[in-house]
Amino acid sequence: MTAPFIDLGVHHKAGGLSDKVALGFTKVLRWCADTFFAQRYGHRAVVLETVAAVPGMVGATINHLTCLRRMCDDRGWIRTLMDEAENERMHLMTFIEVSKPTWFERAVIIGVQWVFYVFFFALYLVSAKTAHRVVGYFEEEAVISYTHYLAEIDEGRSPNVPAPEIARRYWGLPEDATLRDVVLVVRADEAHHRDVNHGFANELAGLPVGAIAKCPPHAELLPNWKKAA
């Protein structure tokens, strides 16, 4: 399978105060990641994908409850956000196999996840537009990080190990797929999430929704009742 082409130069220019706050917050987190992990992109991916899987579930939960209260349609947002959360979780499961996080990193994950979950839940309640913009900027940085990871692999600084079995099954990769193939499809996933969340933020702000990068095909993770049907 070939990863779809993505535009690496996509960046939403911060307009009002909401966008500037979202961008500033993202840059602070990027600085923390750069300081803590340096060039250890595999370990960086494990921690960041744990955080990245939070917004989709938070957004789906709040939109679900909002639609119940207002007795209105969700316009496809709930399923989209849940798919995003699931997709990010599969990124995490893949990079756990690659990087084998230490107990210290697992402790960091627990602390960061709780703090970020509470923060993002509150932010979404106050301003869903800002919350989606934050995720859009997060994903912009993720595309940059995975591009750097590809360079590390291509230049021999990170070993191009065989792709984990879970990644081969999820993205339908061939048996001889490598880590480079995995990073390519993960980066394409992140570009898709980037455009979807900027699009949601634009829609909430009454702005035009731009083009959305293609998402690589992946296996549908069926619920138990469908498997038994």
UniProtKB/TrEMBL annotation:
Q: What is its main location?
A: membrane
Positions of transmembrane segments: 107-126
Which UniProt keywords are given for this protein, alphabetically ordered? Answer: Electron transport, Iron, Membrane, Metal-binding, Oxidoreductase, Respiratory chain, Transmembrane, Transmembrane helix, Transport
* InterPro entries noted in UniProt: AOX, AOX_sf
- Compartments, as annotated in UniProt: Membrane
> Which cofactor is essential here?
Fe cation
- Which CDD domains does the entry link to? AOX (cd01053)
Query: Which Pfam families does the UniProt record give?
Result: AOX
PANTHER family noted in UniProt:
ALTERNATIVE OXIDASE
Protein name per the record? Alternative oxidase
